[in-house]
Amino acid sequence: MADPLQSLDMVKASAIDMVVKFGPKALVAAVIMVAGHFAGRWTGRMLLRLLARFQLEAPVRSLLVRVAYLVVLALFAIMALQNLGVELLPLIAGLGVAGAGVALAMQGLLGNIVAGLTIIFTHPFHVGDYISIGDEEGEVLDITLFSTTLGHTDRSKVVIPNRKIVGEILHNYGKLRQLDLAVRVAYGTDVNLAHRLIDEVLRANPRVLQDPVPVVGVEQLAESAVAIAIRPWVAVPDYVAARREINQAVLEAFRAQGVAIPFPQREVRLLGATA
Fold first, then answer.
1. FRET partner for 246 with CA separation of 20 to 30 A, picked from 14, 47, 52, 125?
2. How many of the other CB atoms lie within 10 Å of CB of 191?
């Protein structure tokens, strides 16, 4: 019975010795980390106020604030480790080796981060712009370090990894889109009357922008009709609704004024007949 009791006493003595030796240092290290957390948040708030004076995108401001917080927290972490007596050089070397391995295993993720930084700082598009890239298009809803989210008119979303965007051909429509509509009228129609009716429809529709000025004009002299192009500008969210409203309003205006929209037709003449 003496040996177990003696071993238990030795364990208690060792534990008390470690608490006495490292307890104050661990407490001070914890206090340093807590102070680092609050110092990082304070630095982030100060940086956010400073960045408010510049015209930066929200993702850029968020990224810079987060980086500032992490840098301050890392400095306090170094102070805490030094207080505990940890040798930093071997630790840094070990972290470097581990970081190389992690980098090889996460090439795709790191590629998205690099591409995200490129997008954020080069501004090929902004939140609210309508873009087309590859087989995807939509309104930019969010830009992060890892991906860009596009919104479709059917309220669905598509998330594109940033590395799939950088280096590709990008079509940025901005925050406005131009409708590409056309209506066909008979050759005997008063084209000026048709133009006037279309202009009235465009002025009456609140979704249609008057600046830039809508484009209306004869686009093609087809086989059986005159094609009139209707190309007004609308905000990106109004694109689908405006298209439907304008088509319906033009149809009703033409019917009210007796403007004929002809059916496709072809005249065939027989020049001779065989006996």
1. 125
2. 14
